[in-house]
Amino acid sequence: MIDKALNRRKLMGLLGAAAIPAVYGADPPLVRVKLIEHVAVTVSNIDKAMIFYRSLFGNDVVKDNRSSTRFLRMGPCYLEISQAANGEASRITRFGASVEKFQAATLKSSLINVGIPAKESAMGLIITDPDGSVFEFGPMDSWNLLRDTTPEPGPGAPLFQSRGMQHVAILSADMKKSTDFYRKLFGMEYAMQGNPPGPRFQAGDTRIGLYVPPSNKTGLDHYSVLVDKYDIPNALEKLKALGAKAALNRDGVLPEFYDPDGIRMQVSTAA
Predict the structure, then answer these.
(1) Taking the domains of the chain in order of start, what are their residue ranges?
(2) CATH of the domain spanning 4-269
(3) pLDDT in tens, 12-28
(4) Phi-psi region for residue 101, left (φ > 0), alpha (ψ -120 to 50) or beta?
(5) SS3 of residue 91 by DSSP
(6) How many whole angstroms separate alpha carbon 125 and alpha carbon 146?
C-alpha cells in the first residue's frame, strides 16, 4: 500500500510544482480553491501608485465610482489599489481566493464547524488567520462581479506581461498554530521551504507560503505575479526609474523589489 502521508511530497519531488494543482493529501481540503484571484494594497498616493502599477502590469483598469480605489486586471486576477487613510502605513491588506461552486452559507457553516469564524462581505466571506492576516473566499471570476465602476484607460505598454497571481507569503509568529489553520482549509502542505523552513500550501493553481518572521513583524509579507519571460537588465533599469527599490542577486536574477511605498512584491516567470 502506498504511504498516503508521503504521496503529496513524493509527487512534488518527481513532477515539480507545476504538476500539483489537482493533487491533495490524505485529507482533502475543506475549500476547493481555483486560485488566488486578487490582492488588495493601500498606498500613500493613489495617483502616483497607478502610474507605477500601470507601467508594470498594464491599463485594464476600472475605478470605483464611490472612492478613489482602482482595480487593475492581470490575466484572470487583479490588484485592488486603495488610498491609505491618514496615518495608515501602505501595505498589503488582504488577498482573495476564488472557490469552485461557491455557496456562501454552505461554506460559512463548514468553516464554523471546524472552528474558523467567517464574516460575510459584499463579495464573499472574510477570514482572519491566527496572525491577523485577512483573506476572502468568494466566487470565481470576481472581476466580472465588480459593480459601480468605470473603465479608466491609460497610456503605454506594460513592463511585464502578466498571467495572474503566483503566490502570497505570510509571516507567522506561531508556525504550528498557523500550519494547523491552513491545513484545515487547503489540505496537507506540499513542501517545506525557507530558513528556517515553513510549509507551502496549494491553493488551486496558486500557492500560499508561511514564513518565520525575521523580526516581530507578522502578517501578509509579499505577493508574486506570474509573468512571461522578460529582459532582466531592462526591467531593473525601468523599475528604478519608476521609484522602486530593486537589485539583482548574485545569480543575476531579480528576485523581488519594493514599490515606491515599500510594499514587497515579486514577479515569477511562467514555465
Answers:
(1) 4-269
(2) 3.10.180.10
(3) 433 334 333 434 444 67
(4) left
(5) strand
(6) 16
